[in-house]
Structures are given as structure tokens and as C-alpha cells.
Amino acid sequence: MAELQEVQITEEKPLLPGQAPQAAKTHSVETPYGSVTFTVYGTPKPKRPAIFTYHDVGLNYKSCFQSLFQFGDMQEIIQNFVRVHVDAPGMEEGAPVFPLGYQYPSLDQLADMIPCILQYLNFSTIIGVGVGAGAYILSRYALTHPDTVEGLVLINIDPNAKGWMDWAAHKLTGLTSSIPEMILGHLFSQEELSGNSELIQKYRNNITHAPNLYNIELYWNSYNNRRDLNLERGGDVTLKCPVMLVVGDQAPHEDAVTSFLKMADSGGQPQLTQPGKLTEAFKYFLQGMGYMASSCMTRLSRSRTASLTSAASIDGNRSRSRTLSQSSESGTLPSGPPGHTMEVSC
């Protein structure tokens, strides 16, 4: 009976829409590439980084991350860290529509805006949580400012630029599909779109009728014009921090990375459909970095204890990071020395 109760707490604790949220303060700062808006929750904690999020195309910080950060078990985490949620330019609620011909920043330039945010807030280090385009932006930032990034949670990242075949397919799709439909195909799998669940209907309506749809299209174009991150394990270009790769079991980007935390029954957006599992994995990731050591062990953590103990005994000298490799896939998104990428299956 105790085990049944524990499973319910771990995986089925409902969202808490009635819970009093932390006070939020929204700021805007000017950067060399235009103004950027971000929202801060909580207050800085001594000797702790900020949790720093960046959303995907077609979303803003609320529609991308609210389900995750309002989840019951996430409260233990957010009480221990200040959070910064960035809205890409023109994606914040109530954003004015950019004039025709506006030169939207590239993803590299969006990454170059981040130092302005951290300087404004006087924050020295972050743990980045990004989805899709946001995961790419945070990775690009981590490559150029490795000393300020303590860890990365990358959901549905595609680190590669579009090839010629991708471009051809994109152009053909554009002839027969609207911008909202193409973005929905980026966010969700064809199975999910065909099922037309309540979640899909909600996001289809939000994107199709978005008052800033032109801005969204500009962000979409920047994403499709991204450069290759050129990451190579052991090469000159690597991520130096611990990394947790996450992909939904039906995500359109599943083939883009070769080793990951694959969320079962999560579709294309794990942070929306499985906030409990992602919260649990995130807590485990933070504990592996040396934070929240006093947090209670969850069912997922205990089920991996033997493997963690084994990994730690083999490589006990690693600081603030460890490898848990239980994926049958080969290779990882390179992140410095071996042992910096968390790879588990849920």
C-alpha cells in the first residue's frame, strides 16, 4: 500500500492552479539586437545559480513552461532557486507587431542578448532549461560563455542546421501548409495532430489566432536559418557543463539526438504532457550537480540508485556531475569530458 501511495504522489500529483504563485517581476532591457523581455520569480539564493528558461517557436514562457513550474512536486525545486523566464523578442504577451521588413535577430544574436539580461540582474551563473529553439539558443550561449552556465536541460534540441533536403521539404510544405500548421508540426508529432486532443486544439487555436503571428513567423524563420552547432565530443567545440537531454517519445526531433532521457507517453512536448516525470528527472539532475542533497529520494531516483553507486565508484573523482548511461542508443550531444551528460530512460 505504501508503494501505491508513493507512485500516486510521484506521477499523478495534479497541477496546482489555485496555489498562490511566487511574486513575478517583468523587466525589459535594451541589447545590441533590440529589446528583450523577461520575468523573474523569487529572490536570488546565496551560492546558487538562477534557473533560466527559453521557450520554443510558437510559444511564450507561459505557454511553454507554466505546466511544468506549477506542478506540485516542482515547488520544492523553485523554492530553492530564483527563476528567469525569457520571452524571445515579440513573443511576450501584448507584444506589438513588428513592422513589415523588420530584421529579426538570428538565434546566435538571441543568445548574445543573454549577457545583457544577466548583467541587468547581476546574476553570475545559470542552469538553463530550453525547449526546441530555446534549447539551441541556450546551447549557443553556453558555448561562448561556459563559465556562466552550471548545467543545461535541453528538450527537443536539434543542433544541426537544415540541409538541402530539409530546405526542399520545408519549401514544399510551405506551398501547401500555413505557418501555424508548420509550427504545430514542429511542436507536435503527426500522431498527436491527427488525434486532435484538447491540448492540440488549445495550441492550434493559440497559434492560429495569435495577434503577434507575424512576430512568430519571424522567430520561426530565424530557427530555420540556424547554423550547425558543430559539437564534437573531445573536439574543440563542446559543452563544458552537465547536460540533461530530453525528448518526447513522439517528438518530431527524436532523430536529431542519439542519446536522451526519452519520456514515455509524452508526445512532442514533455514539459506539457508529463510535468511529473520531467520534474523528477530535473530534481535528480540537480542532486547530481550537488544541489538539493537533502531532498527526499523519489521513486525514479531510488530505481537508479544501484547504477548511480556503480558509476560513482568507477569515477568518484568527478565533481558536481555524473553519468547514468542506461540508453541502448550510441553517442551523446557532446558536453566536455565523458560523464557530463545524463542519459536515462523513463
Describe the main β-sheet briefly: 9 strands, mixed
Give me the number of helical elements: 14
Shape: globular
Mean pLDDT: 77
What is the chain-wise order of helices and strands? HEEEHHEHEHEHHHHHEEHHHHE
Rg, Å, rounded: 19 Å
How widely separated are the two ends? 23 Å
Instruction: Give the strand content.
Output: 5-15%
Number of E-type strands? 9
Q: Which structural category fits the helices and strands?
A: alpha/beta
Helix content: 25-40%
The low-confidence parts are: 1-18, 252-261, 299-332, 335-339, 341-346
Give your account of this protein's structure.
With 346 residues, this protein is α/β, with parallel strands linked by helices. It contains 14 helices and nine strands. It has helices at 2-11, 61-69, 75-78, 107-121, 133-144, 164-176, 179-187, 190-195, 198-208, 213-224, 270-273, 275-288, 299-303, 305-314; strands at 24-31, 34-41, 50-54, 83-87, 126-131, 149-155, 243-248, 261-263, 341-342. Strands 1, 2, 3, 4, 5, 6, 7, 8 and 9 form a nine-stranded mixed β-sheet that branches. Strand 1 (24-31) and strand 2 form a beta hairpin.
